[in-house]
Amino acid sequence: TRMREALQEVASQSLRAGQIIKHLREFVTKGETEKAPEDIRKLVEEAAALALVGSREQGVRTVFEYLPGAEMVMVDRIQVQQVLINLMRNAIEAMRHVDRRELTIRTMPADPGQVAVVVEDTGGGIPEEVAGHLFKPFVTTKASGMGIGLSISKRIVEAHGGEMAVSRNAAGGATFQFTLPAYLDERIVAND
Questions:
Q1: What does pTM read for this prediction?
Q2: Tens place of pLDDT for every residue, the chain, 192 residues?
Q3: Could you give the C-alpha distances from 19 to 5, 29, 31, 124, in angstroms and in order?
Q4: Which residues are CB-contacts of 146 (< 8 A; sequence separation ≥ 6)?
Q5: Please, what CATH class does the domain formed by 33-190 belong to?
Q6: Backbone angles phi, psi at 131, to 5 degrees
Q7: What is the b/e burial string over 147-160, where b = at least 16 CB atoms within 10 angstroms of the residue's CB?
């Protein structure tokens, strides 16, 4: 029946959420990551599908920019998707009280062997007094958050050998950028 299908769907989703939380908890306690080659575009799109639920109704326009030369990354998929979801949800939250609500997600090549991911909003920006301790662990009061916060996001990125930074953009909003290790196919490297 349709009801049973709906219940099975809910059950499998909560099971997946449970696995994600367990996986993140293991990272927090042991610092473990299970890296595999992943398509950055697919990671971004899957994370966006979860993070952007209801955002269009809130008047948020989302733009995706996938620049060439940044395709495959060597990452722990669940962890990186949590970082993306966290940054996108924070961006939507930051634009609640502004008229222009534009979220830009960009992937592009960074330093050799790295891919950069940029999440940019047109919100009110990060107040000076907060900017200094933005990545320190703090308690989230957000109802929609999974409570993983920026401090864990930064730790996940650093555990992958990357860096995370935030700056103020031309629109006055916040631009978060983080880097991930690119996955280089050995066959290409061998021809160098």
A1: 0.81
A2: 788 887 887 777 777 777 777 777 777 777 777 899 999 999 999 999 989 989 999 999 999 999 999 999 999 999 999 999 999 999 999 999 899 999 999 999 998 899 999 999 999 888 777 776 777 765 444 544 444 588 889 999 999 999 999 999 999 999 999 999 999 875 555 444
A3: 21, 15, 16, 35
A4: 20, 21, 82, 85, 86
A5: alpha beta
A6: -50, -40
A7: ebbbebbbbbbeeb
